[in-house]
Amino acid sequence: MAQLAVIGAGYVGLTSAACLAHLGHHVVCADAAEERVAGLLRGESPIVEQGLGELVKEGLRNGRLTFTTSNADAVAKAEFVLLCVPTPQADDGRADMSFIRVVAAEIGPHLLSESIVITKSTVPVGSTRVVEQTLGRVDVSVVSNPEFLREGSAVHDFLHPDRIVIGADDESTAVKVAAMFSRTSAPLVVTDPASAETIKYASNAFLATKLSFVNGMAALCEAVGADIRQVVLGMGFDRRIGSDFLRPGPGWGGSCLPKDVTALVHTAEEVGYDFALLRGAIRANEEQYQRMADKAVRMAGGSVDGRVVAIWGLTFKARTDDLRHSPSLEIATRLTTMGARVRGYDPTVRGPLPGIEICADPYAACEGASVVVLGTEWDELRWLDFAKVAELMVVRAIVDCRNLLEPAAVRRHGFAYEGVGLV
Ligand code: UGA
Questions:
Q1: 256 assigned to active site
Q2: 195-219 pLDDT, tens per residue?
């Protein structure tokens, strides 16, 4: 078992730290945010993620996991250092590498000789070289090991990955990194750093394109009287297509897909390739947000100006409290621009949000509303008392952007109901 440092306690960093400690390693996880570290040292997980809080507590209890605000202290004894800092989208669409650069410059002088620095953050092609240069250490190896976990199932995905990708310049370094994951039984893809970095972007871009395709098919289904649920069922049995990631929705969001697809388009532009397919996937996604907003307007009777619109579910998907690039918020903004008063409910959101009045429960959100938009597939929304909802609303209309509800059951209560891609 190895001595590890994880820099960054966000979704990827904290999950990696807690899971690697669970797998038997000794892990020091560093984050600059003092409050976050203090909470973690008390065993409090700062994010909603199934199983993560338990693993943090387990690691603290058995002494294999600890937290610090000092990157230098974290790396002092580490054989492996995992960089898990954010690479947000810069104004021009590029991935912003400044956190990576700052951390690499800071830890360079403190690294053990022969240690291995592993980049887990999603970084543009060529970043492994940038990290090498910034560290300024010829006795330290740098490896790319992109992470593919999803929010909402991060712990499960980390412990049971579909594959582990290691981009290293030499085989012996790759073997050492692979040994870190020996207790998971995933196929290993050992390659060069540039290919590993590209695999991450290619995967997210492919998934986003798949969703834009499916959302386009859903629009077509509505026009020709077909049912997208049957269509994707029929498609998914073809093993070349696969049945995952074929659920139509309000458009794709989150902290990764939008940022990574935009960054890849940018990378392509820089090398003279116009990645029109990806530009199309992004445009189709914007149109999908708008299509959902337009549905809400139509269902409300042709205008939302001065009317209340309820939005059920605000996070970018269920089982997370993450609001970054949430389709629900995109739709809310469009409706607010058209004059709507938006009232929102989400099981994980309590604080105020600009332009949305946050309500304590789904019923309160739809009081006096002319339409409800179901934006996030929270399971609890399936089991509401729709007779009560019907009484609270001015116009009984539901736009179900996740096809979560049973249309016939909702219609029985006098609702006009529209899903995505349904007859
Ligand atoms: C995504 C990738 O799926 C992960 O493999 C990757 O590691 C991660 O980004 C990252 O780069 O860190 P995540 O952002 O957690 O994971 O979200 P997804 O589960 O991919 O969902 C993205 C969006 O697509 C959400 O808005 C979701 O609701 C939507 N979606 C997903 C659908 O509309 N339909 C589907 O069938 C699946």
A1: yes
A2: 999 999 999 999 999 999 999 999 9
